Q: What sequence folds into this?
């Protein structure tokens, strides 16, 4: 296929062989084609497009006019219109490798990776444009991988948002613990309280005592006794199943988190940069 201009950066190199072209295409179509070249040289792109379109209307087999029209559309970033032009050329000259590669490139640009791959894989490894087609294939595979990762992240985010439920507004919520019945307990540092959240989402005040002072860490033992890291009062409180509260351990400097594993309770003592292990029974 004869290429009459090629996009280079922000400029086009135009070529014309009107006397030869008139032999291959209709005289009227050639006149409009030449008019399009003239409009392009003056920077009147809209008029150039219209002239090239008229040229192919007068002569539907005018390959060079389709090429220039498609290249101008691509230059103006109207890639879907460029695809239509180069698809027409492909119909007229199905074995033209340059057109096939151009379609692969354009479909890649618009994000239609399936069609882009279809054309990129049509180029044989013996063709001089094979390396270019192979490069497009690699770009497509990379883009597909990125899109798949993006879609997976989007699906995860949607699932997170769908499953997220705001249980209540607490005043400085800190520690969390769940008892054997599936009831959630929340330490409220600011108002020195312990709340419980039932499985249906209902929130109730569980304990508010003068003994509580900046509760943070919470943990249950195997008998559903609740232990509280009482940060501001430097001790560990115990609340039994009946709701009775008392001091369990003293002289713990700024206890922060609690966890219970088997017979052992572990306490992070922030004030002394230590972790305490205590055998419960």
A:
């Amino acid at each position: 296929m004869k290429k009459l201009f090629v996009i280079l950066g922000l400029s086009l190199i135009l070529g014309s062989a009107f006397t030869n072209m008139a032999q291959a295409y209709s005289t009227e179509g050639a006149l409009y084609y030449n008019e399009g070249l003239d409009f392009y040289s003056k920077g009147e792109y809209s008029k150039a497009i219209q002239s090239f379109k008229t040229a192919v209307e007068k002569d539907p087999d005018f390959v060079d006019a389709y090429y220039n029209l498609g290249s101008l559309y691509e230059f103006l970033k109207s890639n879907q219109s460029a695809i239509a032009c180069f698809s027409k050329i492909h119909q007229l000259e199905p074995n033209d490798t340059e057109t096939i590669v151009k379609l692969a490139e354009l479909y890649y640009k618009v994000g239609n990776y399936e069609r882009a791959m279809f054309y990129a894989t049509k180029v044989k490894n013996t063709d001089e444009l094979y390396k270019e087609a192979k490069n497009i294939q690699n770009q497509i595979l990379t883009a597909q991988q990125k899109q798949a990762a993006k879609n997976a992240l989007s699906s995860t985010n949607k699932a997170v948002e769908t499953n997220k439920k705001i249980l209540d507004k607490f005043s400085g919520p800190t520690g969390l613990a769940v008892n054997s019945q599936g009831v959630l307990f929340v330490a409220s540092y600011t108002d020195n309280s312990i709340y419980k959240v039932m499985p249906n989402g209902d929130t109730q005040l569980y304990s508010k005592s003068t003994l509580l002072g900046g509760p943070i860490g919470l943990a249950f033992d195997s008998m559903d006794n609740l232990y509280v890291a009482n940060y501001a009062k430097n001790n560990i409180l115990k609340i039994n199943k009946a709701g009775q509260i008392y001091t369990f351990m003293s002289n713990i400097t700024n206890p922060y988190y609690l966890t219970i594993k088997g017979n052992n309770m572990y306490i992070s003592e922030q004030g002394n940069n230590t972790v305490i292990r205590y055998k419960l029974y």
Q: What stands out?
A: The chain has a mean pLDDT of 88. The radius of gyration is 37 Å. Residues 228 and 273 are 19 Å apart (CA to CA).
